[in-house]
Design goal:
The protein is an alpha/beta fold. Helix content is 21%, strand content 30%.
Length: 225
């Protein structure tokens, strides 16, 4: 599908509650047919969000940063400076009307953008987000390779319009993730592009995201795997 997508860079650190309200308003206007699809690229100040499946015991440090309950799927996530947040207000019905395929297209998009920096992002059954194998780390106790999470995905769909979206770690303070069990997964760590030894900037990642967006959402291939 080729469509008119409005890309916006939000400057500075976007306050969470106000940005969420603006995102929901944009999604509602899209559902009414008043505006086109939109992708917002931004950063938030340090905070935790609690998705609809969040468990209280996974909030390890409840007083460390503000905590925002949100209506997207998933559990606890961290947002903060150095992490690219990508809010995707897209017409899921026009893009095939299959939510499972839509989520796979989001995954495919993240993987394609990471590949621009020779990073092999992978999906794991039962684990949300995009992962990278860490051959520089000792293997797990069961002999499987060590893996770290580099990107999180969590969306909500209302009236066939998606909102919330993706976060990709460029150069956040990785110690900030220790205040939660990210996405409820205790056995794996979190990484970033800079942590992997890659001097990637936000501008570099944004350019990669814009280059790989339309091919990743081309009709069909996202569900053939």
């Amino acid at each position: 599908m080729q469509s008119l997508v409005e890309w916006s860079h939000l400057p500075g650190l976007s306050p969470y509650a106000e940005t969420l309200a603006a995102m929901e308003a944009r999604a509602d206007s899209m559902a009414r047919g008043e505006t086109d699809e939109a992708i917002w690229l931004l950063e938030h100040p340090p905070l935790y969000t609690a998705g609809t499946s969040a468990r209280a015991e996974d909030l390890v440090a409840p007083d460390r940063f503000p905590v925002f309950p949100v209506g997207r799927g998933g559990q606890y996530t961290y947002h903060g400076p150095g992490q690219r947040v990508i809010y995707t207000m897209l017409d899921v019905k026009a893009r095939g009307g299959d939510v499972r395929c839509f989520v796979r297209a989001l995954e495919k998009w993240v993987i394609a953008a990471l590949a621009e920096f020779n990073v092999k992002g992978e999906i794991r059954p039962g684990r949300v987000g995009v992962w990278v194998v860490r051959p520089d780390r000792p293997p797990n106790a069961d002999g499987t390779p060590a893996e770290d999470k580099i990107a999180a995905i969590g969306i909500k769909i209302r009236r066939w319009i998606s909102f919330h979206g993706i976060s990709i770690n460029v150069e956040p303070d990785l110690t900030h993730f220790s205040g939660i069990v990210p996405c409820g997964i205790r056995d794996h760590g979190v990484t970033s592009l800079v942590d992997l030894g890659l001097p990637v900037t936000m501008a570099d990642l944004d350019a990669a995201l814009m280059r790989t967006f339309e091919p990743s959402f081309a009709e069909g291939p996202a569900c053939r795997r």
